[in-house]
Amino acid sequence: MTNLVERDRRRVWHPYAGAEASPLFEVESVSGVKIRLADGRELVDGMSSWWSAIHGYRHPHIEAAVKRQLERLPHVMFGGLTHEPAVRLCERLVERAPTGLERVFLSDSGSVAVEVAIKMALQFWQARGRPERRRLLALRGGYHGDTFGAMAVCDPVTGMHGLFASVLPAHVFAERPARRFGESCGPAELDELTRLVDAHRGELAAVILEPIVQGAGGMWFYSADYLRHLRALCDDAGILLIADEIATGFGRTGRLFACEHAGIAPDILCVGKALTGGTLTLAATLASGEVCRALSSGDPGVFMHGPTFMGNALACAAAHASLDLLDAGAWTGQVAGIERALASGLEPCRALPAVADVRVLGGIGVVELRAPVDMERVEPAFVEQGIWIRPFGRLVYTMPPYVIGEADLTRLTDGICAVVSTLG
Fold this sequence. Notes:
The chain contains 13 helices and 16 strands. By secondary structure, it is of the alpha/beta class.
């Protein structure tokens, strides 16, 4: 019988990989914060399955909720029909979101949630009789997804989508915020952004950014003051503000939403990843009352988007269960504990010759290297340490599940330090 990895390499295409992914490890099962490989090795998951499995794997409360929903209503089209799991989820999201967000559009992935946000902004100005306002202002170092609209607002120089630059809409880009998280930032820090807004005021529909934490574009943590000044700038210029909290939402930075660090509310908010606790794919785009009214009153009077699996009842049930766990409140102490452990455990990396920077915020730890990692070498080395870490570019980073214990956190940080110490 041909082994699974060999079969995979003949028929499967993995993310950010060639036709034959390498290295590749076969997973047999998952539980808690552990990934069990087919060869019997257990790995502490330092990635939460790309930020999503915040409660660990196979949480009984989430599994029970999905099972109950499966026995009653797994899915039904959302055009012309509705159901309790979706309606109540939208209510709960609005209750927890920053003030002013009134309505929720459900979708099935983070990239689509961003596409929806962009289309909302563009259609907002169409409805207002200003169709020339069709460009967005985004930040260098930003990442918003891999679909075409989302790619167009990712960093066009240092991002992952330069290959497609010639066919993407040309948006406006400002330098990423220079001040780190925790540092003060005055209005002068927005001079470039202000100049760009003034120069393109008549054609800008919205500003889009990841609040506080720039994720896959560089894992950069920036000053909350920047967000406060940006909100004021958008208000003054009459431009919508889109906050992409797909990676940061639901507690990862120590607040339920990263916008809370600055005390601001966007006009449009994107969430996903951890929304279902990593159990099923689901995302959402929340819009202000002003955006909703404009889209509903202008031509054509409806929002022009409709995913087939919108409002999937199983995913909504998982999201409810995940929100139940967050509502219990333990996550705040858990994330604070992770932050302390990552700060102390990764600090030894700072003195290593291969390391340019070490930074930690909430449940996120980053070791920035001076040179890109060799995945063929580094990935198996992390597995040998008994941990699952998936670096990219010059970044070795971790965002473990909130339920991780002290011993497993130590295993993570010790393993990262051990592997990074071997890099030249």
